[in-house]
Amino acid sequence: MDATSNTPTVLVVLAHPDDESFPMGGTLAKYAAQGARVTLVCATRGEAGIPQLSAEETAQVRSQELQAAGTALGLAGVRFLGYLDGQLAAADPATIVGQLVDIIRALQPEAVITFGPDGISGHPDHLAIHRFTTAAFDQAGLSARLYYLAPSEATLQGCGVVPGRELAGGPVAAIDIADHLLAKVRAMQCHASQNPPFSGPPEAEAERLACHEYFTLARPISANGTGWTDLFEPALAA
């Protein structure tokens, strides 16, 4: 993608505030800086994330943190689906999948990003949003790409999850985020209630971050599995 091409839309569907910054903030900042319209759908407001506060107070704090992080990353918008943190797996599948189908069809994204079947950390909400987003992508019927966040050094740093032995389950895009590490750090630090890693001076902390984030192509199925450095390239064989 370059500045002269038609600017694509990237839709990111995740479970909680901070899911966007810690493991994949560099990628979102990179595509936003290149002119893509990057929209985040967050299924919950993170109501269970601050034990000393009520769910309502926590939701207010974490929603504000997410909006600030979205600004730091250059997101075009943030939408909340209104489900409760920790209870996403109990959501009516037809309802939430229908919500996501409507969003996908309205935005017409060229790429959709969500958690993979491991949920990175195995959190039930992550696993649920993986299932719901995958089902919605399949039902929406667009000619687009669906990517799952893959384990990597970046997810280890951001989420405390040790990378798996294999990144793949399909072709993997390795996104170079070296020029966007500062934006990622600043977005991570917006989530102050979550005691973010790399909480020192942003310029210094940026030098400590992994320079690549990884995403496994889930749809369409492709045998071309090596050397990807962009969510939109190479072109897929028909």
Brief characterization of the structure:
This protein is an alpha/beta fold and 238 residues long.
N- and C-termini, Cα separation: 20 Å
Could you name the CATH homologous superfamily? LmbE-like
CATH architecture: 3-Layer(aba) Sandwich
The outline comes out as globular
Computed over alpha carbons, the radius of gyration is 17 Å
What's the helix-strand series? EHEHEHEHHEHEHHE
Structural domains: how many: 1
Oligomer: single chain
Number of helices: 8
Number of strands: 7
Q: Give the helix proportion (percent range).
A: 25-40%
Can you give a write-up of this model?
The chain is of the alpha/beta class and 238 residues long. It has one domain: Rossmann fold (3-Layer(aba) Sandwich). The chain is built from eight helices and seven strands. The chain has a seven-stranded mixed beta sheet with strand order 3-2-1-4-5-7-6, sandwiched between helices. Helix 2 links the parallel strand 2 and strand 3. Helix 2 packs antiparallel against helix 7 and helix 3 crosses helix 5. The longest helix has 19 residues. It is globular, with a radius of gyration of 17 Å. The N terminus is likely disordered.
